[in-house]
Amino acid sequence: MLTYSALRQEDPDVFEALDGERRRQKDGVELIASENYVSPAVLEALGTPFTNKYSEGFPGKRYYGGQEFTDRVESLAIERAKALFRCDHANVQPLSGAPANVAVYFAWLEPGDCVMGMDLTHGGHLTHGSPVTYMTKLFRFVRYKMKDVETGAIDYDEMRAVAKQERPKIILAGFSAYPRELDYAAMKSIADEVGAITMADMAHIAGLIAAGVLRNPFDDGFHIMTTTTHKTLRGPRGGMILSRGKVSNPLKAPEKTVENLPTLIDRSVFPGFQGGPHMNNIAAIAVALGEVMKPEYRVYAQQVVTNAKHMARCLMERGCKLVTNGTDNHLMVMDCVKSFELSGKEVEHLFDRIGITASKSTIPDDTNPPYSPSGLRLGTPAITTRGMKEPEMETLTGFMLRAVDKRGDDASLERTHQEVKEFCRQFPVPGIAVSDEI
Ligand code: DSN
Question: Which residue ranges form the domains of the chain, and what is each CATH number?
Answer without folding.
Answer: 46-292 (3.40.640.10), 296-424 (3.90.1150.10)
